[in-house]
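Justification of resources, computational component.

The compute hours requested in this renewal are based largely on the per-chain cost of generating structure records like the one below. Each record pairs the submitted sequence with a full structure-token output. That output is archived, and it is also reused by downstream analysis tasks.
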Amino acid sequence: MIDLTDEQKKVFYEAGYFFDYRMLFPDLDLTIDTDTLHSESVTIKESICDNEDLTLGGCIAFSCEFEVSEIIQHDLSKRSFDVTLEVHDEAGNTILEIPMGCYKVYSAEMVDDKDYKKIVAYDALYDASADVSDWYEGLFPVISLNAVTKTDDNGTEITVLEKNYGTTTLKAMRESLLQHLGIPYEEQSLINDDMIVSKSLQPSGDNCTGLMMLKWMCEIHGGFGRMNRNGRFEVTTLQSSGLYPDEDRYPDVDLYPENGNTSSVALGVSDEEPRAEYITAKFEEYMTKYITGINVRTEDDDVGCTVGTTENPYIISGNALLFGKTAAELKPIAENILNVIKDIIYRPNTTELIGLPYVEVGDVYSVEKEDVVESYVLSRTLSGIQLLRDTYEAKGSETRSNNVSDSSELIRTKAKILKIQKDIDGVRIEMSDLEEETSSQYEQTNNKIVLKVTDKGNLVQVSLGSDPEKGTEFKVGANNIELSADEVIELLSGGTINLSAGNGITIEAPNFQLSKEIIKILTKNFTLDEEGNVTAANITITGGSIKIVSDSNEPLIEMQYGTGDNMVTAGLSPEGVYYTNVTDTWEERSTSGLMTKYRTAVSTEHKNGTWQTNMIKQHTFGDAQDWETIEEYPAAEIAYHAVSGKEINRFYSAQVSSYFASTAPFFDAVDLWKIDTINWVMANGFTINDAYTSCFKLADGVVHLAMDVRGTIPAGKWTTVAMFLPDVFAGFNIAPVTMNAKQTVMYPILTSQSGAGAQAVARLTLIGPEVGIEIYQYGTAAAEWAQITMDYCVELKEGD
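The structure output for this chain reads:
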């Protein structure tokens, strides 16, 4: 605001004073005043922000327009002039002069065929749009050269010289640019004046203008660039408090407009004193919210660096003077800006009032209607001469929309960027360092994932996606691809593996392995696995021989017929021929909790004229047909004895068969589980898993028990899981003892297993008048289940 006393300000809203504009053209020794100016034709427009939201930077050229006669003989084009508003009293004395700015004529056209001209002029910022690429290059001199070895597009190493440039401060840069543009400026000390500026651009053509530079500088200063009334550049900042026109002019409560209409209402202290008057005021119902944080971005979609909070942030995007700075360097810069603008709050409005030439853009004012309208003069239009009229405007949203964009086409040479784009179509993350010419990118949509890394034009790309014709696909592209592992690299294909190279394929290794799985070579009828096993539809050897060398007694030639459990295998081993068939199969739960298939098989071999028989136990998982041997019994004859030591039955394995021979009287198989009088009761906390095949049968002096018990089974102790009455064993050599004593009557032939991954064992005990089933689990951890699959030998009492 122009510094005037209260008495001087009154001349603009008291009667008895006259106004006169004077336009002085020093180059032409010409002065234009009210005598030749057309009535009320002068319009002066000033603005520091005309965007929909408050935007730092300013640097908007002010304009002055008027119509004037009697100057046809003068060529005013490109001529500079100073504007002064004079105030005269009734006696004609000049009592006040207010500078109104310095301008240059850009249009001086004749109006139709009349004898007067319409003049359109702008201040010095109008010419700041000039290209300043040469100035920018000269601002950062080369201080050293470094020789660096790089690889060109053909893979050839070349040596290039990298330039190291000098730096400057933001204040020195501002003053140097203004001098280069020929714009006078005020000496100012501003925030971030000492910020170090490095060369971050490679300007080209008209893509680096003085106006861009000035706006970037003013943004970092937290203010707005403008030409003041004396024709000097300055950076103005918005103050956090203050009223229009000054503090002692706050309206009295009696000055509320009646009925809230737009009739003329004074803005003075009382009705008895002259006061400034507004004519109309249109304003929003909201106040803009305080700015809570600063986010500095290289581009609109860059994540950037943030200080304060993100509730209502101010975003600085695309400011090239900040390119290449680290988050640690950006933080104090952003904090300084936030301290300047954090208290800015106003009500967006458009107010028309009597002209007040001493008010400048950036000043604070208030209007008293039904509600107090307090705002900033962000844009103003002053029109007329004797009948001065002012229009103030301040735009803004309640919460900042932050719809910023970087539309410049500058060639950047120094910037570190992190972009994150997220929408319903996908996610894209990009990191880049323009100085190092490196970048990485991650992109994900509903049907693909792409990874890219670029280093000085060299691209490596990995993509996972799908093709309507080919199906899913995985692609890798790079100048060089290296796969390394400390142990094994496996290439697996359910179809074909194709290898092609322009200069051939070389494989060097002490051991050559193509795949863990079978690889088809040449034709589909010939395969080779990792163990060296060959499968072929037919093999014909002419004029040669077959030589088999082996250090073990494993089968060398094997023949099979039948399928699954009915398959019979025969073959040739180093010591003779062999013959194997399956004798029994069953299913139970393994220590991992999976249902597992088991089988026993009898293998008979003829070694050096002598037959030898072995019985083995094998298992497999799920639907797999690969059986693995887990137990092998060298002898083909097994005897089973009762607790007393008496033999009950014996297992025999012959050359082509195996069977049990019982020495006890023969009994028909009895399903003990189905006898109601057993009164089977599970102990507290234990249940039987019905998904497992459970049985409790008696046959040939052997009790077979199979059950899946669920419940907590502690480790290292016997735990009772079920009880039943022993009546079913009447006639057997089992005698209860006293009511409180416990007597173990039967130990198992086969062991059980538990859910803790340890082995377990079960036994039948006499506990008073009942028989108990107890489980002992080895190991250190409790189990939540145990599977019992055991045979118990019993013997008859004498005389039965």
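The chain is about 5% helix and 40% strand. The longest helix spans residues 327-341.
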